[in-house]
Design goal:
single chain; about 425 residues; alpha+beta; ten-stranded mixed β-sheet; three-stranded antiparallel β-sheet; 14 helices; about 20% strand
C-alpha cells in the first residue's frame, strides 16, 4: 500500500515519495512501534523504501490483505486513467481532499476518500469520492484541456459522467479555465460536447431558472443581448460550469452559468453574465450538499444581471423609437414626393386638355424624364422596352437633363409613333455631331 491511516484520531497519513536516509529510518522506527496499521484488516504496517516506488507502506512479509490488494489494483487502473493530466491535477486533487477532510472533522455526516480507495471495484474512478449523509458525490478535475478537442477523449469524459450517475454518484467536474470559449458579441458560450454533458445543476441554477422564467416573458429578451437563439420556445434549464485556475495568490474557481440552448454542433448556450471567482475552499463548502458558489456574490450577480437587462431593454426600445421615427419621416418624404409627382402629372394633363379645347399648340413645360415618359405614354403609348431604348441609347447623346428638347422635337415634327420619334432623334444627333 502507498497510503495508510494514522492510528491516532484515524487521520490519513501520507508518506512523502522521496526522503533522506535519516527520514526513512525515522519512519521505520515509528512503524516498529506499531504506529501504522492497515485501515482494512488492522494489521501492522511496515515502512519500505526503493528506487522505483520511493518510500511506502507494506504489510509484513508483503502479505497484503485482500482489500489492500484490490485497492492497489484500483490505484494502478486509476494511474492509467489520469496519465494525460498535467502536474497541477495532482495538486488540485490533494487540495480537494484536504479541504473536504477538514470539514469532515467537524461534521460526522461527511465522509471523503480518493475515488479508487472508496470504490475499488469501479471500472473508472472519480478523483475524490464524498458522501454527505445518504448522497454520494464524484468529484473530478480535468486538466491538459488542449486535448479536449479530440472527440475520443470528449466521449470518454461523457461516458464517465454517465457511469458515475449509474453508480449512484452525483458528478461534479472542475475544468481548467483555458478551455472556456466565449463569444462576447453574441453573449454566448460555446461548449465542447462533454462540457454540455458534465455541466452541473445546483440550487443556485434553479433560482436562475425562476428568474429567467419571468424575464423570458419579454419576447425581445434575447435580442437585447444580441444572442442568436436556436428556437422560439427555449426550455428554461440553467446549468453551471466550474473553471479552475491558479492566480498569483491561490487556486480559484470561476463560476459560469448559462442557459442550455443549441444541442447540436456548435453547442452554443446563452451566457448569464461574465461569471465570478471564488476561492477553491468556498467552492467545495458543504451544507447538506456542495454550495459551489458564494451566496452573497450570487445575489449581487443576479441583481447586476437584472440591471443590465433593464438597461439593454431601455437602449433597444430607444433605438427602435429612433428608427421608427426615421422610417416615419422617410415615409412622409416619400409620400410628399409622390404627391408632387401626381400634381405635376395632373397639371400636364390639364395643359393637354386645355390645348385640345382651344385647338392650341402652346408648348408644355417638360422638366424631367418622368414628365417626358408620361407625355409620350399619353400621346403614342410608349412601351417599357421603348422607354429603356430612349433612356439608354438616345438620352445620353442628347443629354440626360434635356428631356424638354426631346419633347420639343416630338411636337415640332408632329410624331405619331415611337418609330417616327426615333428617326427624328437619330437625325438630330447626326446633325449635331457634325
Amino acid at each position: 500500500m502507498r497510503e495508510a491511516l494514522h492510528v491516532i484520531d484515524n487521520e490519513l497519513y501520507r508518506l512523502p515519495y522521496s526522503a533522506t536516509k535519516d527520514e526513512v529510518n525515522n519512519f521505520k522506527k515509528l512503524a516498529d512501534k506499531d504506529l501504522f496499521q492497515c485501515p482494512h484488516c488492522k494489521a501492522k504496517l511496515i515502512v519500505k523504501y526503493g528506487d522505483m516506488k520511493g518510500i511506502y507502506f507494506s504489510h509484513q512479509h508483503s502479505e497484503a490483505c485482500e482489500v489492500s490488494r484490490k485497492i492497489d489494483q484500483a490505484e494502478k487502473r486509476y494511474s492509467r486513467q489520469i496519465e494525460r493530466e498535467t502536474k497541477i491535477h495532482n495538486t488540485i486533487q490533494a487540495i480537494l481532499h484536504d479541504e473536504i477532510s477538514n470539514q469532515a472533522k467537524n461534521n460526522t455526516i461527511i465522509k471523503v476518500d480518493y475515488g479508487y480507495r472508496a470504490k475499488p471495484d469501479l471500472k473508472e474512478f472519480p478523483d475524490i469520492w464524498v458522501k454527505v449523509a445518504d448522497r454520494e458525490f464524484a468529484l473530478s478535475v480535468i486538466t491538459n484541456v488542449n486535448s479536449l478537442v479530440d472527440n475520443k477523449l470528449s466521449n470518454t469524459i461523457s461516458k464517465r459522467h454517465q457511469y458515475f450517475l449509474e453508480q449512484g454518484m452525483e458528478p461534479i467536474w472542475f475544468v481548467e479555465k483555458k478551455e472556456q470559449a466565449i463569444e462576447r458579441e453574441k453573449n454566448s458560450i460555446v461548449l465542447w460536447d462533454a462540457e454540455l454533458t458534465i455541466a452541473s445543476k445546483t440550487n443556485q441554477d434553479r433560482e436562475w431558472d425562476s428568474l429567467l422564467a419571468s424575464l423570458l416573458k419579454d419576447t425581445m429578451f434575447f435580442k437585447y443581448f444580441n444572442y442568436p437563439v436556436s428556437t422560439e420556445n427555449i426550455a428554461i434549464d440553467v446549468r453551471s460550469m466550474y473553471y479552475i485556475y491558479s492566480n498569483e495568490e491561490r487556486i480559484v474557481v470561476k463560476v459560469q452559468r448559462f442557459l442550455k440552448d443549441r444541442l447540436v454542433k456548435p453547442y452554443r448556450a446563452f451566457l448569464l453574465g461574465i461569471g465570478y471567482e471564488i476561492p477553491f475552499a468556498d467552492a467545495v463548502l458543504i451544507k447538506n450538499e456542495f454550495l459551489l458558489s458564494n451566496p452573497t456574490l450570487e445575489v449581487q450577480y443576479q441583481n447586476e444581471y437584472i440591471q443590465k437587462y433593464k438597461q439593454l431593454q431601455i437602449a433597444v426600445k430607444e433605438q427602435q423609437r429612433i428608427e421608427k421615427e426615421r422610417n416615419q419621416q422617410e415615409e412622409e418624404a416619400r409620400q410628399k414626393l409622390m404627391q408632387q409627382e401626381q400634381e405635376r402629372k395632373k397639371k400636364i394633363l390639364e395643359q393637354i386638355s386645355s390645348q385640345k379645347l382651344r385647338g392650341s399648340q402652346e408648348p408644355i413645360s417638360v422638366s424631367s424624364y418622368d414628365d417626358l415618359k408620361f407625355l409620350l405614354k399619353k400621346r403614342i403609348g410608349l412601351t417599357q422596352r421603348q422607354q429603356m431604348e430612349l433612356w439608354t441609347h438616345y438620352m445620353p447623346k442628347i443629354g440626360l437633363k434635356n428631356s424638354g428638347v426631346v419633347w420639343d422635337l416630338f411636337i415640332e415634327n408632329e410624331c405619331k409613333s415611337y418609330d417616327e420619334l426615333r428617326k427624328v432623334l437619330q437625325n438630330f444627333i447626326s446633325v449635331r455631331s457634325k
